[in-house]
Specification:
The protein is mostly beta strands. The chain has one domain: Immunoglobulin-like, CATH 2.60.40. The chain is built from no helices and ten strands.
């Protein structure tokens, strides 16, 4: 089952680092090759949903990451998020929901 690997998922609004890291493994914890996959992160933000495409960092070993730009992360607790995988053949799999907390900037 696919799960983002960075824990906890806590950021400050407008953060651009660190990236959110992920890996795709089967139920036996064996890496799934994601070469040719389209992987997207969906976050239910306060203003509007965010959809970010992944960078495949080591696709043979199922590794990917999501890089944030200023404005991607809005303040709010327990923002529902999920990762969606589309295979080269068009099959779609959505991983389990998880939460991202984004605290408000002080300055």
């Amino acid at each position: 089952m696919a799960r983002p690997k960075t824990l906890p998922h806590i950021y400050t609004e407008n953060d651009t680092a660190p990236p959110l890291l992920g890996e795709y493994k089967d139920s036996s914890a064996v890496a799934i090759d994601v070469t040719g996959y389209t992987i997207t992160l969906h976050i239910k933000r306060p203003s509007a949903p965010l959809v970010k495409a992944a960078t495949l960092t080591d696709p043979t070993n199922g590794l990917f990451q999501f890089d944030f730009t200023a404005g991607d992360l809005e303040a709010g607790q327990d923002q529902a998020a999920e990762v969606q995988f589309v295979t080269p053949g068009g099959a779609i799999f959505t991983g389990p929901e998880f939460c991202i907390d984004v605290r408000a900037e002080i300055a």
